[in-house]
Input
Amino acid sequence: MNAIGWFLYVVFAMVLVSSYIVIRRGLAPTGLVATGTIIINVLLVMGISLAQGNHPVQAIIVGLLIGSVISALAVAAAAFFRANEIVTSTGTGQAAEDELAPPELGDFGYAEPAPADDEPEPGDPGLAEPDETQVNEGEG
Output
């Protein structure tokens, strides 16, 4: 690869990293950054392909495929990690110690499940066996 190809490759990498950081930190709207990143990287990959002496049609196809797929993956990763950041009660982005503490262990070395409010008590009519009239209603 010649010097122009290497330069375009470095610019391609810098655009990917900077767009990831911008989306991850929420510095600009995700859709705007994604659109700009994809357009710029498609053009850069086309330039890299042309710098290697490829046919212009091949450069267009490679630029569209490789540039858009790699850019979309970087944008999707940044958006995914931004959406799944720890949200804390303090709102500072720093989790309090009690929020990160492991759950209390029960008698058997694992966390006790929380009691469900909707479970019927023993002797509750919801647990009663169906009588013969209920079973045979559908038969006829």
Q: What stands out?
A: The chain has a mean pLDDT of 79. The helical segments are 3-25, 30-51, 56-83, 97-100, 132-135.
